[in-house]
Known about the structure:
- The protein has 10 helices and 11 strands.
- The chain is an alpha+beta fold.
- It has 2 domains: 8-162 and 300-314, 2-Layer Sandwich (Ribosomal Protein S5, domain 2); 167-297, 2-Layer Sandwich (Alpha-Beta Plaits), CATH 3.30.70.890.
Amino acid sequence: MMNENVGSVRVKVPASTANLGPGFDTLGMSLSLYIWIEMRKAEQTVVHFSGEGFEGIPADKNNLIYKVAQLVFEEAGVEVPELEIGMRSDIPLTRGLGSSASAIIAGMTAANTLIGSPLSNDRLFDMATALERHPDNVGASLFGGIIVAAWDGEHADYIRIEPPQQLKVLTLIPDFELATSAARAVLPKQLSIQDAVYNISRSSLLTAALSSGRLDLLASAMKDRLHQPYRAALVPGMEKILEQATSYGALGVALSGAGPTLLAFVDGSRQEEAHRLESFMQSVMLEHDVQARTLWLEPDLQGALCESDIHPDLFLASIKGEISS
């Protein structure tokens, strides 16, 4: 039954990076970039946007946030046909930073809280994975930290790993979009047994290294033969960065999700190496006449955070930038 005492909700959900090299569709990590969603029942559905990057995104019932909210209501046996929704996001779209996954988790978490949280986070995880078709991004955005997950088509089993404390993330975000569908289209239909073993061994080693804090193993553990070699042609400079970034101070380096963003893990205590690595990655992009920006991020440790019963005068205030988020 709906909890009538919950009149409005505000959700903050982190971005994510998937695969981490060899863990294709199974490993994900949350990042300190965020989407904010506010939601309340209304007489007529409307979606408000704050900031840039929302061009072409529907402001009515065709909006993704509205659609996933309705999935939650249907699953819970509740009807809330009209919603007022506010959106603000610092997560760039179609750059390999889990923008759609974070939006799905934000919409589902907000909707579930609005009706008194009848669905568990594990159930929301299964529902979100069914939409995304892989659990890595949605799991990281929902639970925070590092997520190791397996999806059987109906249910996702997962383990959350607390990221090593000194781990920082340098992201290099090229100024062009790369659709996940295009990045998946270049992947081979079959792999050799040698390449399969190569990836399984490194994905296992990477999971163990992150669990035990063995940052010295990341360079070897993050190597991949399943998707990155085939996607390198889609991201100018990617091959050189993957090959040489560890010589400039990276602990390990990978394509973020389907790309085009590249990320490097860095020991946060080594500032001099960090600056040298950033200069190297930017210079490679310039060699290929690609505009790109760098962001220093950290693993987000909390995942989706929800605040209930926002004061009526403050609803949409954070979305419009009037108060601190």
